[in-house]
Amino acid sequence: MEIKTNEFQAWSVGTEIHLEGAMRLAGSDAYAPIYALMIDVLNKAKSSVTMNLSNLEYLNSSGINMIAKFTIEVRKRESLHLTIKGSDQIPWQNKSLRNLKKLLPELDLLIQ
Question: Region 42-70: what's the mean pLDDT?
Fold first, then answer.
């Protein structure tokens, strides 16, 4: 499944979720199709899920909330492991992604 606009792209390959571009959607309802894609990957995963955000230049607070909600959903499924890949070249990622470890301490956060 792929969601593509002029500003961003969201797709999955196996158990890896990719988000790229600039996501400035208005509220959680607007993020619902992307969250559905993420949950679909989660439901198919047997042991791990990777979220690659290294090319996600911008994400507003509603989008950050969506990722936090997804992290909590992974936490509920004790048999699954979550890895999030980010970029230290994108300022919002350093601060916001590190906060996800409070929700899921065993999260592998790879910011390079």
Answer: 96
Answer yes or no: is pLDDT of 14 > 90: yes
Confidence of residue 58 (pLDDT cuts 50, 70, 90): very high
Three-state SS sequence of the chain: CEEECCCEEEEEECCEEEEEEEECCCCHHHHHHHHHHHHHHHHHCCCEEEEEEEEEEEECHHHHHHHHHHHHHHHHCCCCEEEEEECCCCHHHHHHHHCHHHHCCCCEEEEC
How far is residue 92's CA from residue 59's CA, in Å, rounded to a whole number? 8
**CATH number of the domain bearing residue 99:** 3.30.750.24
**What is the total count of domains within the chain?**
1
For 82-96, what is each residue's pLDDT tens digit?
A: 999 999 999 999 889
State which residues form the domain around 82. Answer: 2-111
- Residue 13 contacts by C-beta under 8 Å, 6 or more apart in sequence? none
